[in-house]
Every structure is written in C-alpha cells, then in structure tokens.
C-alpha cells in the first residue's frame, strides 16, 4: 500500500517544498512514483512549474490548496510535481508532447500520462472552475478519469504515435551538413528582419531579452562587419536597460516584458537572464564606451552580491514575481509614495512618475521617455533619490528567493563576471566568479557534477549543460588568470561529459546514460531563454580545443557541429544556439600575448576588447623564448614582447604596441 500523503517535504527544490503542505498527495518524479502508477493502475497527473512562475502560484492557490480538488486528484491519479529548472529533460519531453497536441506551451504545464509515463492529454493553467474561456480543473479531472476508465482503448490508441512524434523531435536523426558561412549569414539576416528597430527586441509583445538571437546579431557584426546587425543589438539592449523590465533601484533584469515597450515586466528575476545581459552589456561597452552599459553591469553585480548569494558563494536561481500574494507589489509605486518636493521633480519626470501611474494605477519606474543621460550633476541628484527610494523599498516584504544553485546557470554567471572583470578591470568581480566556481566544483561526488545544490542536498546526475557551462566558465577563468588548473578542470569535465552523455551515434544527450526515469533521452538541441545544451557543448569544446591547441579535438567538434546542423535544418525552430556555436568554427581565433608580466599594455588592450570568438593565452616573455603558435607549424623565436592573432591556421604579423593591438581587434564595418 502506498503512502497516502504528500511526499515533497524533503526534496531539494524550494519549488517542490512550497507544495509540501498541499492536501494533494504529491510525489517527486522518480522510480517510486512511476512504480506506484504501474501497480495501482492509475494514470499520472504531472504538474511542472518553477518557483518564480506567477501562474504556477495562481494555480497552486486555486487548485492544489483546495481540499475538493485534492480529493479528486488523490482518488484518481498518481500526482507528480516537477521543478522544470531541476529537470529540464522531463520538461522538454512533455512540453514537446503538448505542442504535438496543437496546444500552446507554457507554465504551469499540466499533463496526463499513462502508467508508462507516456503522455495522452495536457494543458497549462487551469482555474478550479471554468473561467477566462478555460475549462475548470474539476471538470478536467473528472472527464479524464471517465475516459480512462470507460474508453481506455481510445486513450492508448494514439499514445505510441504521440511518443514517436516527440522522440523524432527531441532525439532527432539527420544527415550531417557541412559548415557553410552562407547558412549562418542568412540566419542572422532572418533574425535582423524580425527586430523592431524603433523599440528593440523582436517585433510585438511580449518582449523577451532573447539572448540566443542577440548572440546571432553580435556574431554577425563581428564576422561580417554588418552595422545593421550591430545597431539592432545595441538598440535592443539600450531600450531594455532603460525600460521597466530593468530594476532601476536595485539592479537586475526581469524575465520579460508583457507589452511591446519594455515597460511592464513579468517581475521575476532569473539568474540566467542577468548572466547573459552582463555579457552583452560587456560587449556593448567595449564597442561603444557608453556609460549606460557599465552602470547597469555595476548595479546588477551589486544586486547579485546583496540578494543572490545562496551560501555566500554559489548563486541562487531566481526571485519570485509575487510578494504578499500580488505580482509586482514589491517593485511598483503609487505617486503618493514618492515625494513631490523640488528635489524629487527631476526624478519624477525622468522615471515616468505621474499621479495616474503607467500600470494599473501604479508606477513602474523606467527611463523610456528620458533614455539619454543628463549632465553629471543631474545624474548625481537622481542617484540620491534612487538611494532614498531603495531604502524605503527595503522595508517592504521581499519576494521569495529560490535558493537552489543550478550548476549550468552558475556556469553562465561565472563566465559573465569573468569576462566583465577583464574589460572593467574589476578584480572583485573576478573573485566573486572564482568563489562561485570553487563552490560548484566542491559539490562534485566521484568526479560528477550535480545539477542542483540546496544546502546539503545535491541532485544527481547532472545534465550535459552543466558540464558544458562549467567548461566554458573554466576556459574564461583561465583566460583571466592564466592558471592552468582551470584547463585541467575543463578537460576533466569533458571526460565526464563523454562518459555519461555521449550517445552511440557519437553525439550527446541532455540526460546522463544512468538516468533511468525518462522515456526519451533528448538531444538538448532546442534553445529556451538560454542557448541549448548542444549549443553550449559545441562552444565549450571549440574553446577548449583552441586554447589547448588540440587538433584532434578540433576535428571531433567539427563533426559534432555538422551533425547538429543537420538536425537544425530538419527542425528549423529554436536552435540559434547551435548555429551560433557552429559558426565559431568558420575561423577559430586565438590571441597569444607574450609579455614580461600581466600588467603589460598589450594585456590591457586585449582585456578591453571582449570577443566571444577569441581565446587569449599569455606566455611570459623571456628573450629568445620559443613558442609554437599553430600545432605542427614550427617554433618561433620571440625577441621582444608582442601579440600574435591567429585565425584558423593562419597567424597574422605580430603587433608590439597596445594601440596596434586595439586596432587589430576592433571590428571593421563592411563597405556594403
């Protein structure tokens, strides 16, 4: 007899623990829950969400906290709760199934499965009773139960076909396609054609930061000198960083804007969005020297230190959108809460504070109507008012924080902080990155990374994205410090990636080979708000191969990229990450800096020009030093400090001054 109780109380996910006191007899995903379904003959009700999801909280309050709903769920279903951030492999399988049913995806994801965990019906948010044109959850539960009992053949008839369809999408097989610059350029042109050049971002609402598309535009600018793509990137970034999607008092970017003006955010803050925006703002500052980008990075790193350190080192996952049961309550203002004294007038004008408000009678602070910086004195006065309002806001009840530390998301942030530390010469940011890196590294058991850590709880096995993100973080830390232990770590993680995630056909799967609780081992080709696992794997191996001058590894990753491009052309949706990473193979770049010390002007010139295509290697200069720039090309004798830029298997003439190196590294606009 299975325990008639809620079993989420000891789970590692704060999101699951939030549901531990529901009257629903929730189970965590795993062998025991699947076994219970098989032995009781009940279908599975799978609910997937995450801690910062507003509508997940709404459905939880309306349905899962309701005894009448819980009684129906407990009587007729094995109820399983999944945190999509802990188990993106599970989420991808059943979200793809929902899409195959012709339904629009989103969270909460509500799926009904057979005892073998194969999907047969689903949806997203359901109110308890019919509302918003949606069927009530009570009616859904009773209808599914009736069909399951009285027309079971109808249920199972299409299950295998649906599962095969999902498998074909997520575990796709395709013929390898050679690298072709025209493919990458056409993809970038397609993305640019979708950009709203007045407001930035993709045209229409809602507006997401959409980091993989932003990467596409920036790589096209670097590769081809396409100024239209550069300007689309910069316009999008500037507008979102002046919009309401950015927290102008506390720092940090929200997940997306529900309107097409970047004004009204979905107020949750995610670690991954902020990692990617820090990288993008670092590129933008290196290109433009616009102080907006520096200021936003500084404000956001301050927020990370103040609010997002889960154990003093690792980063937490997210902050909720809601506080006191209301979305955005912590962040919005009524006009009466902001003084109308003379010293506040410039602030009220600049940040769009009016008596009627700009959202549901409240004000979301933004600079969309005053995007350009004022003189130094005015900006100093605005800062004073922001500090006053920040102190006032701190007295409010804060949104909850999801304290779990996800390895791949931390890897993204470690890399972002490391790259920014070089451009802005901030050793404290580098120390913050190294502290997180060490904490994640110390969470390993038997050489394997966990996907998630919360207190003493660790969720194994990790995902392929965890190893890829940490390889990328390690290579970036090596570039910043030139400490070879980071390259040793990267090599170790590649070995673990190969051991646990390499598939029989020579590609990679998102789930480990000993993950026995999934019906499909998905490839991990599809982007979400971050580049796909496959995209991250390709980039990490390319960078490691370039840094270590491993020609065999370089050849191997070329084959992986061609395999992945073949799948992309079959799928044709949501795979910018694969294309962006594969494009790096067109011309791998390595900058070798031979100087007497790390304070040399050549080092500073390299640090100030961040380029995602390039890896930097430092060699201490000693007179008549011998180096091999390209494997098998023979040694050079170095007679004076210099920088050598190699593209593919061709190295340019050395440059000896910081000015010459800065000019060499600067992207050049095309003449077309």
Oligomer: single chain
Q: Helix segment count?
A: 24
Roughly what fraction of the amino acids lie in strands?
5-15%
Distance between the termini: 73 Å
Helix content: 40-55%
Over all CA atoms, what is the radius of gyration?
A: 26 Å
Poorly predicted runs: none
- Number of distinct beta strands: 20
> Taking all residues together, what is the mean pLDDT?
94
Main-sheet strand order equals 1-3-2-4-5
The helix-and-strand class reads alpha+beta
In words, what does this structure look like?
A hairpin with a 2-residue loop joins strand 9 (322-323) and strand 10 (326-327). Helix 12 runs parallel beside helix 16 (407-424). With 672 residues, the chain is α+β, with helices and mostly antiparallel strands. The longest helix is centred in the last third of the chain and has 21 residues, at 551-571. It is built from 24 helices and 20 strands. The protein has a five-stranded mixed sheet, sandwiched between helices. It has a four-stranded antiparallel sheet with strand order 6-7-8-11. The protein is 47% helix and 12% strand.
Summarize it.
With 672 residues, the protein is α+β, with helices and mostly antiparallel strands.
List keywords for this structure.
12% strand, alpha+beta, 47% helix, 672 residues, four-stranded antiparallel β-sheet
Secondary-structure map:
Blueprint: H1 14-18, E1 26-28, H2 31-40, E2 44-49, H3 54-64, H4 67-76, E3 78-83, H5 88-100, E4 109-113, E5 119-123, H6 137-150, H7 152-157, H8 159-170, H9 181-193, H10 211-224, H11 227-242, E6 254-257, E7 265-270, H12 271-288, H13 291-307, E8 318-319, E9 322-323, E10 326-327, H14 342-350, H15 376-393, E11 401-402, E12 405-406, H16 407-424, H17 427-442, E13 452-454, E14 457-459, H18 464-481, H19 485-501, H20 533-548, H21 551-571, H22 576-583, E15 589-595, H23 601-607, E16 614-620, E17 625-627, E18 636-638, E19 642-647, E20 650-651, H24 658-665
Parallel strand pairs: 1-3, 2-3, 15-16
Antiparallel strand pairs: 2-4, 4-5, 6-7, 7-8, 8-11, 9-10, 12-13, 13-14, 15-19, 17-18, 19-20
């Amino acid at each position: 007899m299975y325990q008639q109780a809620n079993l989420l109380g000891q789970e590692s996910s704060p999101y699951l623990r939030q549901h531990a006191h529901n009257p629903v007899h929730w189970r965590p995903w795993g062998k025991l829950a699947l076994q219970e379904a098989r032995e009781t003959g009940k279908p599975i009700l799978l609910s997937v969400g995450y801690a910062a999801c507003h509508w997940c909280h709404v459905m939880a309050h309306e349905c899962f906290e309701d005894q009448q709903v819980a009684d129906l769920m407990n009587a007729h279903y094995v109820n399983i709760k999944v945190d999509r951030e802990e188990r993106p492999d599970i989420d991808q399988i059943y979200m793809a199934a929902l899409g195959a049913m012709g339904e629009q995806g989103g969270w909460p994801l509500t799926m009904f499965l057979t005892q073998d965990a194969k999907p047969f019906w689903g949806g997203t948010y359901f109110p308890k009773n019919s509302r918003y044109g949606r069927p009530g959850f009570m009616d859904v539960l009773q209808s599914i139960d009736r069909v399951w009992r009285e027309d079971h053949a109808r249920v199972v008839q299409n299950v295998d076909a649906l599962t095969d369809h999902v498998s074909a999408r997520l575990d796709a097989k395709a013929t390898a396609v050679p690298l072709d610059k025209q493919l990458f350029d056409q993809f970038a042109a397609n993305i640019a054609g979708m950009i709203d050049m007045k407001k930035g971002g993709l045209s229409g609402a809602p507006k997401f930061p959409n980091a993989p598309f932003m990467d596409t535009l920036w790589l096209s600018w670097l590769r081809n000198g396409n100024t239209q793509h550069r300007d689309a990137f910069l316009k999008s970034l500037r507008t979102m960083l002046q919009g309401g999607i950015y927290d102008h008092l506390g720092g940090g970017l929200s997940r997306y804007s529900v309107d097409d003006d970047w004004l009204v955010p979905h107020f949750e803050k995610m670690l991954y969005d902020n990692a990617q925006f820090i990288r993008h703002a670092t590129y933008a500052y290196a290109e433009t020297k616009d102080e907006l980008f520096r200021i936003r990075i500084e404000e956001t790193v301050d927020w990370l230190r103040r609010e997002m350190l889960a154990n003093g080192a690792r980063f937490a996952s997210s902050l909720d959108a809601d506080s006191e049961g209301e979305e955005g309550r912590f962040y919005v203002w009524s006009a009466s809460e902001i003084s109308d004294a003379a010293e506040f007038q410039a602030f009220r004008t600049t940040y769009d504070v009016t008596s009627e408000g700009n959202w549901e009678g409240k004000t979301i602070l933004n600079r969309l109507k005053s995007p350009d910086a004022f003189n130094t004195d005015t900006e100093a006065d605005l800062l004073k008012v922001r500090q006053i309002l920040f102190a006032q806001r701190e007295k409010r009840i804060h949104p909850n924080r999801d304290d779990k530390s996800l390895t791949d998301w931390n890897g993204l942030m470690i890399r972002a902080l490391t790259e920014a530390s070089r451009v802005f010469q901030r050793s404290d940011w580098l120390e913050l990155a190294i502290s997180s890196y060490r904490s994640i590294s110390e969470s390993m058991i038997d050489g394997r990374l966990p996907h998630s850590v919360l207190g003493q709880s660790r969720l194994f096995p990790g995902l392929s994205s965890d190893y890829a993100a940490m390889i990328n973080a390690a290579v970036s830390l090596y570039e910043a410090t030139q400490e070879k232990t980071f390259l040793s770590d990267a090599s170790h993680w590649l070995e673990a990636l190969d051991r646990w995630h390499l598939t029989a056909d020579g590609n990679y799967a998102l789930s480990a080979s000993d993950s026995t609780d999934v019906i499909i081992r998905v490839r991990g080709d599809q982007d979400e708000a971050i580049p796909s696992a496959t995209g991250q794997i390709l980039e990490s191996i390319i960078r490691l191969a370039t840094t270590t001058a491993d020609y065999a590894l370089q050849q191997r990753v070329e084959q992986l990229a061609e395999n992945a491009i073949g799948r992309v052309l079959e799928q044709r949706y949501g795979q910018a990450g694969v294309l962006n990473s594969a494009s790096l193979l067109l011309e791998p770049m390595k900058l070798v800096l031979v100087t007497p010390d790390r304070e040399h002007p050549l080092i500073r010139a390299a640090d100030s020009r961040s380029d995602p295509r390039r890896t930097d290697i430092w060699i201490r200069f000693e007179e008549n030093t011998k180096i091999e720039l390209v494997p098998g090309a023979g040694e050079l004798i170095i007679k004076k400090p210099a920088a050598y830029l190699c593209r593919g298997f061709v190295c340019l003439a050395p440059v000896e001054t910081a000015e010459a190196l800065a000019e060499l590294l600067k992207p050049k606009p095309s003449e077309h």
